[in-house]
Amino acid sequence: MMNPDALSTFFAVIAERLPACGNEVRRVFHGRGRCYEGLEQITADWLGSGVLQIAIFKEDEAAFYGALKQGITEFQHGDVWKEVGGNTIVVQHRDREGAETETFVGEQPQQINVVENGLTYKLDLGKRQNNGLFLDMRLGREWVQNNAKHKRVLNLFAYTCGFSVAAIEGKADQVVNLDMARSSLSRGRENHQLNQHNLNQVAFLGHELFKSWGKVKKYGPYDLVIIDPPSFQKGSFVLTKDYAKILRRLPELVVEGGDVLACVNSPDIQPSFLTEQMVECAPAFEFVSRLDNPPEFEDIDADSALKVMHFRHSAR
């Protein structure tokens, strides 16, 4: 259980971080990194346009919810909320089936356009568990934008195509997005359009990966491959079992000197999982570095946090 008395720290951290966000989307409190005792199951994201979204991940006692409601009431009347132009505070209940969203201040928009690193993405609020952009991958998207110039990019498990948007903005020649959820790819198309990108440079493949290697190879070979899978996707992907199947295909997909970003976001999987699997399944790919995570996603154990590992296809 979380500690209602610790909520003073929760709101103090948010108040300290909000003014620096401007209109950019940003995590402003990350309890799940276990750096704040008594607040391990709560986060807060500033979405810009005056919207603060709080999320609770595990059911708690009535006293905590009461204290949170009181804290929100006090916070909305404070100087920082006025300074940043705040108008809406919602609480997403990831602690309840359906992940329902409560509106505590203002009116909840069903959709909102957010800005990250100057790029625009459309998010859904109150409809589903994930709103359309994983904020802990901010520096990963920035790395892709900075390293995509004149490259052919393959974006596996593309979701709403955040990496693709970053790559095209970074002047990639071509991006191929693959995801079995066609609705996510449709949102990815919208995200590109929001940024006035040329869709002739972007392909959207709504297929299950392991049945579609022929289609994927047809667009290659690639200078950069991004692998950012879910830990578990019923009937299609189990990370610990299926990641190796992707890595074994890399030599035929990636040009010599090409790059791979291999990602894992399961707290139970160590970084060594990826480096060891790469040695076993694709030994021509050398480990270069692990990308930093955004500082706002502080974690008591770095190996439990998001792992974004950079490998390069060495010429031998």
Automatic annotation (TrEMBL):
GO molecular function: methyltransferase activity
Listed SUPFAM superfamilies: S-adenosyl-L-methionine-dependent methyltransferases
Gene3D superfamilies in UniProt: Vaccinia Virus protein VP39
GO-annotated biological processes: methylation
Protein name: Class I SAM-dependent methyltransferase
EC number: 2.1.1.-
Domain of life: Bacteria
Residue stretches making up the S-adenosylmethionine-dependent methyltransferase domain: 26-312
Pfam families (alphabetical): Methyltrans_SAM (PF10672)
